[in-house]
Specification:
The protein has about 290 residues and is of the alpha/beta class. Helices cover about 35% and strands about 25% of the residues. Helix 3 runs parallel beside helix 4 and helix 5 crosses helix 9.
Length: about 290
């Protein structure tokens, strides 16, 4: 099993005919993802030949969903059009909207995540690498060839650290890896994924990657303490970040003692989470937890 994305998922790509959309649609198809269509009102009725798969282009998400039964949309549109793209997908009845686009204004993200929640759609991102269930489906830009199916569930704010942990633990493998994005507002939280992994019978351990800024990791720690029975290993990026300065992701800013890596580490450890000081140490802690569980 997996969370949010399986081999049964049918994917539309909003912005498929653009440069990034074309490149990553090709990679998703190569990973075995069932990409059933693209969306571009100016190119409706055409199709794109991706080697051994011809993918039709629809004029709207609703048209694509009605023609193909799509239940997932991956958004590769410029920031100015991202809000409209997510609203269109939610209105069309798409259940999972994966927003890869970065640089979206926060007020737009607030609007479309709230709207999606009202319509019952789950948003992953924005400013995220997407999610992958190895061996089944890949929605976004995560490399599909650096790991395999396995018992570890991964949720991360950082795309790069997602890839590194996947590679470090490639001999063990993952149930699903979810990059939730590092913006101040995101559609899916650590807690959402922790809850889903706890319920997934094929996820035996969970790795949670956070970073400085905000209190998402502290809130996740409280949730783990009260609701998660599976072993959780954590990593927090940003121990050397200077106070008061934005680092990398838009949400990664520390004010006083709030949002520091040390505060997050302390909260997680108080909840029984082993926290690595580096990605490599985090991988070793996961291997130790897996061995102890066995």
């Amino acid at each position: 099993m997996a969370i949010h994305l399986t081999k049964e998922s049918k994917i539309l790509v909003q912005g498929m005919t653009g440069g990034e959309g074309m490149k990553h649609t090709r990679r998703m198809l190569a990973a075995g993802t069932d990409v059933v269509g693209g969306v571009n009102p100016r190119k409706a009725g055409r199709s794109v030949d991706f080697d051994d798969r011809v993918v039709p282009v629809f004029g709207s998400v609703r048209e694509g969903r009605e023609a193909t039964g799509a239940d997932v949309s991956v958004v590769f549109v410029p920031p100015a059009f991202a809000k409209a793209a997510v609203l269109e997908a939610a209105d069309a009845g798409i259940g999972l909207v994966v927003v890869i686009t970065e640089g979206i204004p926060v007020h737009d993200t607030v609007a479309f995540t709230a709207y999606a929640q009202r319509t019952g759609a789950r948003v992953i991102g924005p400013n995220c690498p997407g999610l992958i269930t190895p061996g089944q489906s890949n929605a976004g830009i995560i490399p599909a060839d650096i790991t395999k199916p396995g018992p570890i569930g991964l949720v991360s704010k950082s795309g790069t650290l997602t890839y590194q942990l996947m590679y470090e633990l490639r001999d063990i493998g993952f149930s699903t890896c979810v990059g939730i994005g590092g913006d101040p507002v995101t559609g899916t939280s650590h807690i959402d994924c922790l809850t889903a992994f706890e319920a997934d019978p094929d996820t035996e351990l969970i790795v949670m990657i956070g970073e400085i800024g905000g209190d998402a990791e502290e809130r996740a720690a409280a949730h783990i303490r009260d609701h998660v029975t599976k072993p959780v290993v954590g990593y927090i990026a940003g121990f050397t970040a200077p106070e008061g300065r934005t680092m990398g992701h838009a949400g990664a800013i520390v004010s006083g003692s709030t949002g520091t890596a040390q505060a997050k580490k302390a909260a997680l450890e108080a909840a029984g989470v082993a926290v690595g000081s580096t990605p490599t140490e985090t991988a070793r802690l996961l291997l130790a937890a897996l061995g102890a569980r066995a």
